[in-house]
Backbone:
């Protein structure tokens, strides 16, 4: 109850910080927040051009039921969201050291804010997804109303992971450097730039893939947005379990370590 | 009268790492070599202090004696190593003016941001916005980024935001030294107003005259221990005599 009250008191701070991040990010840029829509579009253009001309992967290859660029864009939307949320959160507590050393603020506000900022950005990139789907004449299924479910799973997962990473980074700056490598490996371990179908002949790789929570979030998102199928109970349980476990680990580590932050800044 | 702040047996120890261990590899090496020993520095040693509600309480002492550490413990930034701190009411800390300002934003944006840092709602700031700006006297600069401000101007905005509300406890750490003398007078007047409204004020200052003018009681801290607590004149006189 006490925690909830503190959170309510500081919710304005959360909104203000998100607002500040948006303002600072797009200050002096002519297109401003439009970049959040344009960026994924341009990335998609680059990736699908490279893959179709260089590797001949254009159109529906590898058993894809949708065009490659849609496949890429839907996967990248979820992956980029988690990757942006976690990598910006990582530095959030440490970069707020000036503030944390001088005023009492609940410290989880900082990673939480970065997650919400990434979340807002992701909402804009959803516009890009819809634009591309309309332009490419991809069929819209009724299941698209369930789009919020995989997004919420990914958000909970990101918050948990962000709490964990931001707490650890205060003590070990190494994590910053290794994380970008980890993110690249993680991206290749998730079906984003290659069709899942090419792993059918590699049961071992497929097994590894299924240990990756991101695989479930990405596939769930594609199911409801482009495939028009509703994932079963099993998929929901796996997604929910991954996010809740990550959140619990994150909260536990953050809570245990937060009083020591200020001594290491 | 009830107590605004109760400090019981508070000690604060810092690990003075001779070399900072910043990486896992270093940590593991030191861990296995059993070299993970730090020199312990006792910043505060068994402090007991009660500050009554509505009182203006001064802290004096030489640099590095633990005054600021004590303020940070009261405002909840540090958790004491041992002992307990009980605070009744809301705290508005002026540990450093302008903590939390984003210099890329304008003063207007920073007023909302800093207000939120101190836990005020947007509606509340909307309501008080004119009052804040009037106090700073910076009307024509309110929409330019704060990186173009002078330090005195930043301090004005910081002070105006921190004192716009009536906090139960106001913590003032050596901040009245910034700003010109007119602004200093204005700040003191504002503190007077808050005091008459029942706010408890805790002041750290090296300007003994200021302490004498404002405070009801004073604690003198030396090397992390309370050397003396008592009436302002008594403590200040002894402090100036022995320290000079």
Residues:
């Amino acid at each position: 109850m006490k925690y909830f009250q503190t959170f309510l008191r500081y919710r304005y701070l959360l909104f203000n910080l998100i607002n500040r991040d948006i303002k600072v990010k797009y200050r002096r840029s002519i297109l401003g927040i439009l970049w959040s829509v344009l960026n994924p579009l341009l990335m998609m253009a680059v990736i699908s051009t490279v893959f179709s001309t260089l590797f001949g992967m254009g159109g529906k290859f590898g058993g894809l039921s949708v065009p490659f660029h849609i496949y890429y864009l839907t996967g990248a939307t979820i992956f980029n969201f988690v990757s942006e949320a976690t990598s910006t959160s990582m530095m959030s507590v440490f970069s707020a050291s000036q503030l944390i050393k001088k005023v009492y603020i609940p410290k989880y506000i900082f990673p939480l804010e970065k997650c919400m900022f990434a979340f807002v950005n992701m909402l804009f990139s959803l516009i890009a997804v819809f634009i591309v789907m309309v332009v490419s004449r991809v069929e819209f299924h009724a299941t698209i109303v369930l789009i919020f479910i995989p997004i919420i799973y990914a958000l909970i997962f990101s918050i948990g992971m962000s709490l964990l990473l931001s707490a650890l980074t205060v003590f070990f700056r190494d994590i910053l450097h290794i994380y970008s490598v980890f993110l690249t490996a993680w991206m290749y371990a998730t079906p984003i730039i290659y069709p899942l179908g090419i792993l059918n002949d590699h049961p071992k790789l497929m097994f590894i893939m299924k240990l990756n929570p991101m695989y479930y979030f990405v596939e769930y998102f594609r199911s409801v947005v482009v495939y028009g199928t509703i994932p079963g109970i099993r998929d929901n349980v796996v997604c929910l379990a991954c996010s809740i476990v990550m959140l619990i680990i994150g909260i536990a580590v953050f809570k245990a370590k937060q009083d020591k932050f200020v001594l290491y800044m | 009268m009830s107590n605004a702040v109760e400090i019981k047996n508070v000690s604060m120890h810092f690990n003075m790492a001779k070399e900072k261990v910043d990486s896992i590899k270093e940590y593991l090496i030191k861990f296995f070599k059993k070299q993970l020993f730090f020199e312990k520095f006792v910043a505060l040693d068994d402090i007991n202090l009660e500050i009554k509600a509505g009182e203006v309480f001064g802290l004096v002492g030489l640099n590095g004696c633990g005054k600021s550490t004590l303020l940070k413990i009261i405002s909840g930034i540090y958790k004491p190593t041992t002992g307990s701190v009980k605070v009744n009411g809301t705290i508005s800390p002026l540990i450093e003016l302008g903590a939390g300002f984003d210099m890329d934003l304008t003063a207007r944006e920073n007023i909302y941001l800093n207000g939120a840092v101190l836990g005020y709602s947007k509606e509340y700031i909307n309501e008080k916005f004119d009052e804040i700006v009037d106090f700073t006297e910076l009307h024509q600069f309110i929409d330019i980024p704060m990186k173009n401000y002078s330090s005195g101007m930043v301090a004005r905005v910081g002070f105006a935001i921190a004192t716009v509300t009536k906090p139960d406890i106001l913590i003032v750490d050596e901040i009245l030294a910034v700003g010109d003398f007119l602004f200093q007078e204005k700040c003191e007047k504002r503190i007077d107003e808050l005091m008459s409204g029942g706010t408890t004020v805790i002041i750290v200052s090296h300007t003994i005259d200021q302490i004498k003018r404002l405070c009801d009681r004073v604690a003198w801290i030396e090397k992390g221990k309370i050397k003396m607590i008592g009436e302002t004149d008594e403590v200040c006189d002894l402090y100036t005599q022995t320290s000079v």
Summary: Chain A has eleven helices and no strands.
